Amino acid sequence: MNDLTARDQWKTKIGLVLAMAGNAVGLGNFLRFPGKAAANGGGAFMIPYFITLILMAIPLMWLEWTQGRFGGMKGHGTTPGMFHSMWRNPIAKYLGVLGIFIPTMIVVYYAYIGSWTLGFGIYSLFNELPKVDPSVLHQGLSTQQISEAILQPFEEFRISYTGKTSGEFLQVQLFTYTIFIAVLSLSLWLLVRGVSKGIEVLAKIAMPMLFAIAVFLVIRVLTLGHPVSEAYGSMDGFSFLWEPKWFIEKDGRQVFVLLDPQGEEILAHGEVLPGDTTNNVAEYTALLRGLQAAAEHGVRCIRVRLDSELVVRQIRGEYRVRHAGLKPLYAAVMHEIPRFGRFHIEHVPRAENKRADALANAALDDLVSP
């Protein structure tokens, strides 16, 4: 009984509740969830998210609480002792060691992720975060194109901050290392102080601050209006997140128009690609076939105009090609480019690509016509 009294314990119920809330919320919901939701369908992403929350996350939390309460009643504060109490088998204690090893790794991992948040916050204070180019947003963009146009600059920034691969090594900025060491040191210092003087004190201070910041951000978002484009405002963002689309936008229309220097049409082609072809695959296919057709007509200097901001920036080397289905097409396009003495590619709104848009609609009409 003396051992139980000597062990550090929670001093207040509110401290325990706030600490558990901190465990449940997690950095992932603030740091990675918005990007993942936007990149994976918005409202469609929320369906499996809530199913997983109800069927997996909440039951697992109940199991952890039950295990901790049971172990505490038996006088155990670590998982080896808890496992041995629940299962009288020699191997139980050794399995319980995982309950010490895994959280230790998680502390380091979350300290690293937490340092991202602090680092991004510092960049934000100095107005160094990426900006969304208003010209890439216009009426008629698909959900996939919207998410890619907005998220891609931030993904490139994240890669730059967390480290770029160079051969077998990862090149990380000194600033990133410095912030990580500071956050890790603070985390270890809080753990050394124990439950009541470390974790509980932090929960009582940090969790109310977190909730206050969350409320402030919600109010800020609701009052943003249309900061980037008149076509897309904050309520459109809520609609994207909370109104699931029960389909995937895949029209698969690939179109190219070849013009001479005077603007006269040399060749025009449009068709709907077979199967579940995404818009980006169709854009790359059109670009590839257009370059091939231009080379066959003896063109030596070419200027390409696309209404896909993503493809243009990937060809320029400003964005990385991450989708496995686009990499072969990207490689084929890059193989064709050296065939021209001069090559230039630029983005134009779809409204300025009227001839190509007309061909795309005609191709779709041919597909659905009896």
Structure description:
With 370 residues, the chain is mainly α. The chain folds into two domains: 2-242, no CATH class; 253-368, Ribonuclease H-like superfamily/Ribonuclease H (Nucleotidyltransferase, domain 5), CATH 3.30.420.10. It contains 15 helices and six strands. A two-stranded antiparallel sheet has the order 1-2. Helix 5 packs across helix 6 (79-86). The longest helix is centred in the middle third of the chain and has 49 residues, at 174-222. It is elongated. The model is unreliable at 247-252 and 363-370 (pLDDT under 50).
Low-confidence stretches: 247-252, 363-370
Total beta strand runs: 6
Distance between the termini: 84 Å
Contiguous helical run count: 15
Count of separate structural domains: 2
Strand % is 5-15%
Radius of gyration: 27 Å
Q: For the residues shown, what is the average pLDDT?
A: 77
Secondary-structure-based class equals mainly alpha
Strand order of the largest sheet: 1-2
- Give the H and E element order: HHHHHHHHHEEHHEEHEHHEH
The helix fraction, in percent, is: 55-70%
**Globular, elongated, flat, extended or rod-shaped: what is the shape?**
elongated
